[in-house]
Amino acid sequence: MVKSPDLSKDQYLALYRQMLEIRRTEEQLAKSHQAGLIHGACHTYVGEEAIATGVCAHLTHQDAVFSTHRGHGHALAKGVPPREVMAELFGRVTGCSRGRGGSMHLFSPEVGMMGTSGIVGPCILQATGAGYSAKLLNNGTVGVAFFGDGASNNGAFHEGLNLAAIWDLPVIFVCENNMYATEVAFSYATRNTNMAERASTYGMNAVAVDGNDVLAVYQAAAEAVSRARAGQGPTFIEGKTYRTRAHAEGMPSLGTYRTQEEVDAWKLRDPITNYKAYLLQESIAVASDFDAIDAAVQKLVEESFEFARNSPFPDPATVTDHIFSQS
Ligand SMILES: Cc1ncc(C[n+]2csc(CCOP(=O)(O)OP(=O)(O)O)c2C)c(N)n1
Ligand SMILES: [Mg+2]
Q: Which domains does the chain have, with CATH numbers?
């Protein structure tokens, strides 16, 4: 665990709380998928919570986040309430996209969550566009793209990184390198699996961190965001991490592409358990601090589930609303 002496106790615990909120929400979503409450794909972020948490801790609602198919954690860390995420996956009108989008269309412009997407890659270009806009408006905001290792072999990766570098755009590229794209090993899909090294060839700051260490991510993001806000251009952050559940709910967790031993070894590196142990060991927090947070998060997730489950579906008579521009 990287030491971060600048944080107050509240700030340390806020990182724990955010990771736990994502974990508990995802666990509830996984159960709900099994119960038939969610239609369509549901890719959970279990095991990768430290990355969204460490990055979004530095963002305001004016900063724009663009995300992927595995985006629930990004939306939650950016400030979309769990009940709006759950209701959206349940197709309810109270969801953040009014129940019309589902898991891979989570939008909440009020908090700067500019969308998850089922198409792998475009979020890199969208964040670059947000960075271009911020630079033209000179408003001090940043664009952030979260994407997986698999997106790095998409053309959008080259175009986005190159433009952001030559125009010194305020963009943070966050690559969640979990070593697999669906069930294909990253080492099969590319000859150089070191994403920070690949990104640095575009002429931008690029750093690789332990993506399961929230403090390492937090520090890398602090530097990246302050550099971007100061007009010093983009940064690429590679978080080395692992998803401990299946690629998507309903798919096998192992298949032929990875072993139980590999999954178990990564579970020992769980970002939440290890962070809690670190805070206890360093006497930054005591057991009762965690008990209080655990209970509050549990309650929040249970209430969010009840809210989502009891919310109505959109009125069929409104099916063509929000499709055509009225202006
Ligand atoms: C352009 C495009 N190509 C292929 C797919 C099918 N697909 C969905 S998820 C996925 C794997 C993405 O892997 P990665 O970017 O590493 O993200 P991870 O699932 O590991 O978080 C693929 C290939 C897609 N959705 N979009
Ligand atoms: Mg991946």
A: 14-306 (3.40.50.970)
